[in-house]
């Protein structure tokens, strides 16, 4: 994946988010196919010239979203579309990739309500 595939993470926003988007784009475009193994975090970090923590955070998000699968002792692999289909799409903040409380509440079956309770003097 590294030598023949240029990773472009230029732009605005956190590095991990830009790397996550670049990897996601490679998966969706077919440059990375189901079952392909990612290079180790250390090698990927060196190639992209970011810290290993940045790479780990980007990969963590892609694992949570179902694009990648980690196999202990084997590495990180591109997940199949069946794995992604099992997970609901995330409504992510475009800069941080974090899901807001409001979006999480809307996606759950919970309903919100507020009620004013009058103050009672003792």
β-strand number: 2
Tally of separate helices: 5
N-end to C-end Cα span: 71 Å
In helices, the fraction of residues equals 25-40%
Just name the CATH architecture of the domain at 34-102. Answer: Orthogonal Bundle
Name the helix and strand elements from N-terminus to C-terminus, one letter apiece: HHHEEHH
Characterize the main sheet: 2 strands, antiparallel
Instruction: Enumerate the strands of the largest sheet in spatial order, edge to edge or round the barrel.
Output: 1-2
- Globular, elongated, flat, extended or rod-shaped: what is the shape? elongated
CATH homologous superfamily caption of the domain at 34-102? Winged helix-like DNA-binding domain superfamily/Winged helix DNA-binding domain
